[in-house]
Amino acid sequence: MAIHHRDGFDPAPPLRALMAKGGMTVLGVEDAPEARTAWLATGYDEIRQVLGSDKFSAKLIFGGTDAGFTFPGFLTQYDPPEHTRLRRLVTPPFAIRRIQGFRPQVEKIVEATLDAIEAGGGPVDFVPRFGWPIATTVTCDFLGIPRDDQAELSRALHASRAEKSGKRRVAAGNKFWTYMSQIVARTRRDPGDDMFGVVVREHGDEITDAELIGVASFVMGAGGDQVARFLAAGAWLMVEQPEQFAVLRDKPETVPDWLDEMVRYLTSDEKTTPRIAMQDVEIGGCPIKAGDTVTPSFLAANRANFPNPEDAFDITRQRAAHVAFGHGIHHCLGRPLAEMVFRAAIPALAHRFPTLRLAEPDREIKLGPPPFDVEALLLDW
């Protein structure tokens, strides 16, 4: 829907208009005997109430050929108790201690990427040369994908999402899925110290191959896609707000909460999947009936909580409350890893290229359909 598109970094006017009406607005009513209502949640408190309530389901219950189907391993489609069981099984690799131990490897990947950019000279498209290589290499290393296989697997992932031809998207998706299946089979035989190996060693008898493949594919998609989009958007923001990133570069001790502000402002996933009300409930003073859907707009909430003009980017802002990583039981499992990548990559970019700028300042930056997708970002220094 057009309401989820962007006006540069900002919510498009249709979403701004809905935000002005309050924290909950009606998008439409189904023309059927059940007359289910589709709601949009734009308020910070309303979204936290929806995502934190056990009166809503994350499952695809209504409509389409996938109705009632939960894709194995995709945690965002599970409800308790299945969600509780699976999340417990796959949480160990994301423990803070393990993530911190992975930090030196992340920093090496960032430095190698920046070395390659600098060696090649500008101008450079920072989408395929900065966002994608850092995000996919980190995620593949975390999962335990051999370096020799990473480039081909990353291309298959990207093609499964970006190819205009439906047939090519399906073929790329099948190739990606087949490879993940082979990795799981190999890990069952010889588990290492990566994400696959940790889960297999600690909970191998409790998780099926289909679930393990699904979780790994989900993590690869989130790490290789969402993190890449954030990094590209962050590089764009850096050239648009050079004075703010100069503070991050030259006086980092004065902006300890800079990442929360970047995450809030960019909100690289504008919304999450609709939640289905399993019983009547009141949200933000609005009567939500059983069967109604509520779509949480993270972008709206992260801006509505800082009304204009205060929703402008301010790297010196005190810790910014946001829902960019979700809330409740489906809160992003990979948040510690994603934030580690951001903390390594963004300051390193600010230090390495202090004069970073648009190579073609008069050319409009094109955005793909949501989620936040910078199609190309040609930069020079």
Automatic annotation (TrEMBL):
Keywords: Heme, Iron, Metal-binding, Monooxygenase, Oxidoreductase. Pfam families: p450. InterPro entries: Cyt_P450, Cyt_P450_B, Cyt_P450_CS, Cyt_P450_sf. The keyword Cell wall biogenesis/degradation does not apply. It comes from the Bacteria. Transmembrane segments: none annotated. PROSITE patterns: CYTOCHROME_P450. Belongs to the cytochrome P450 family. This is Cytochrome P450. It comes from Kibdelosporangium philippinense.
